[in-house]
Amino acid sequence: MVQARAAMLRQTNAPMAIETIEVGPLAPRDGLVRSRAASLCHTDLEAIEGRLAKQLPAVLDHAAAGEVAEVGADVTDLSPWRSCRAVVEPHQPVVSYQRN
Hints:
This protein is mainly beta.
């Protein structure tokens, strides 16, 4: 397991807190991105305000950008050792990336 820091929403209409969380083992086609930037969208804000049902606690972010930190056994075109940069959009099955 990998530890990560995340902005955690534990209750609606309350401040989020940065917490250390456990990220489970990667599946064969997964990739783990070390985030350097993340954003919230209007649906995240609706969840924070309680206007959108979300199972709590929750880690909210709509998109993130950073570097590939780890990959599953079946991932062959990304590598943390090749300085791959990645943009992650959770509604898309594929990560966009650029190799240096």
